Amino acid sequence: MDSVNKLDRLEKFVALIVLFSAVVFLANCGSSSTSASTGTPSSGSNPGGKSVPGYGEGTGASGQTSAVKFLYANPLPGGGPYAASIGNNGMLTLVQGGSANNLNPHTLAIDPSGSFIFQTAQGYSGGTQGGIFVYAINRSNGSLGASTASYLTGQAFFSDVVDNQGKFLYAQGSTGVYSFSIQSGTGVLTAVPGSPFPAAAPSSPGFSQPATLMAVDQTNHFLYVSTSAGISGYTINQSTGQLTPIAGSPFGGSTVTDPWTIVITPTNSYLYELQAQNAGKLFGYSIDQTSGALTPLSSSPFSTGSCGSMVAPGTIGVPGPDNMTIASAGKFMYDNCGIYSIDESNGAIAQVSGLGPGDWPVISPAGDFLWAITGDQQACFHCDIGITTYQVNANTGALTPVPNSFVLLTNSEVGSVDSLAITK
After folding, report:
1. CA angle 43-47-49, nearest 5°?
2. Distance CA 232, CA 292 (A)
3. Is the peptide bond before 75 cis (omega within 30 degrees of 0)?
4. Structural domains of the chain, with CATH
5. Which of 135, 174, 195, 285: disulfide with 117, CB 3.0–4.6 Å?
6. What is the rounded average pLDDT of the residues 245-268?
């Protein structure tokens, strides 16, 4: 009898193990089935299988997703950037700026760590005092000093960008795209073999007309450059920084007159482009995640609607298109002329407000604040020029000027400000 009871208990134990295994198996199957039925790629990836970090775009700094700490502004007619620290309420406090011997600075590019600023300058009369200027950022307060180095000061440069790993700097000149490796810890630049790589000149490289003409995609595999011939696309060699033209490049040259400022969405799905002379049209392209090729969206171009100013008594005239900026959430895009919603399902973009924040808007990747160049009058010979801070409504994209946030930088009698950059 005792042996029978032992056998009975053994059989029950085995049955329990079998039952438990079946439950675990079915639970796992159910979980897998549910995930597969959604048809949605896992978070942080796209159909091309590459990781998409969701960096904020049009900020002047690469590889940024968090709230920002420092803001920099390019002065005219020349010199090093103005510098400011950013408080928790978005307000700016001026700190020591940079100094350099240059003329007509254009854009500012900051590496992902927020350690170095790379400033392009067009110069004057064939590139005199043009070039690329490097500044070390004091990470404790954001202050700058004298330029630590300058490169190719006889060349005119119109735009620049750092790749999302902080290894390479790309700068657009009159005859091509210059590529440099960045020495970690020092910011020293070394020309990449084969640089400069062929590309047409910008559409409108006129005096004091900068724009964001370069963008690295979210996966760090492709570089796009807005030129007079269209958008030139390149594959980035991750080891050397060398550039290889993407098949079919340049894109949009036959349909877009005067290609100008560009931006890539945080999902890496779309690239948008504004014309230099017509702020009424915004062109959209889908990005092939494998090849980097651009395909015009079927509903492109989109109307950018009206263009006005939301800061009384206004900005310095009605600024032309020079920068588009998108927070990491990717719901809204901002430019000089207003606020736009982005339909991620098809790339369609629509203006939801025709009141722009001012010139060269930049939004924190965290999506809480936006800054833009503004003035105290519509247009005059003797106007104060500086930066206004806006609070951003995450649900609607609406902007509200932060009271008493205007920070004076210069006066139009002696100079101006033509571009901004922010970093963590």
Report:
1. 75
2. 11
3. no
4. 50-423 (2.130.10.10)
5. 135
6. 95
The answer to whether residues 412 and 316 touch, using CB atoms and an 8 Å cutoff, is yes
Residues 128-150, buried b or exposed e (16+ Cβ, 10 A)? ebbbbbbbbbbeeebbbeebbeb
Higher pLDDT, residue 37 or 6: 6
Least confident of 34-38, 122-126, 161-165, 195-199: 34-38
Concatenating the DSSP letter of every residue in 209-267 gives: -----EEE-TTSSEEEEEETTEEEEEEE-TTT--EEEPTT-SBSTTT-SSEEEEEE-TT
Backbone angles phi, psi at 223, to 5 degrees: -115, 135
CA-based nearest residue to 81, from 107, 114, 50 = 107
Cα–Cα distance for residue pair 166/158, rounded to 1 Å: 20
Distance CA 196, CA 177 (A): 5
Q: Is the dihedral of CA 392, 74, 147, 240 positive or negative?
A: positive
Cα three-residue angle 29-33-39, rounded to 5 degrees = 155
Q: According to the model, what pLDDT value does residue 254 have?
A: 87
pTM: 0.88
Distance of CA 149 to the CA centre of its chain: 25
pLDDT at 312: 57
309-320 pLDDT tens trace: 776 554 555 567
- Cα–Cα nearest to 320, from 263, 279, 285, 264: 279
Interatomic CA distance for residues 105 and 55, integer angstroms: 25
Identity of residue 3:
S
The Cα–Cα gap between 57 and 268 comes to 10
Torsion angle defined by CA atoms of residues 96, 99, 422 and 284, in that order, rounded to the nearest 10 degrees: 160
What is the dihedral angle through the alpha carbons of 233, 243, 211, 107, rounded to the nearest 10 degrees? 160
Which pair of structure tokens corresponds to residue 185?
């810890």
Share of the chain above pLDDT 70, in %: 83
**What is the mean predicted confidence (pLDDT) over 56-63?**
98
| Structure-block tokens of residue 54 | 């969701």
Q: Specify the 3-state DSSP secondary structure of 297.
A: coil
CA distance 59 to 108: 10
The one-letter amino acid code at 67 reads A
CA dihedral (247, 252, 255, 261) in degrees, to 10, reads -160
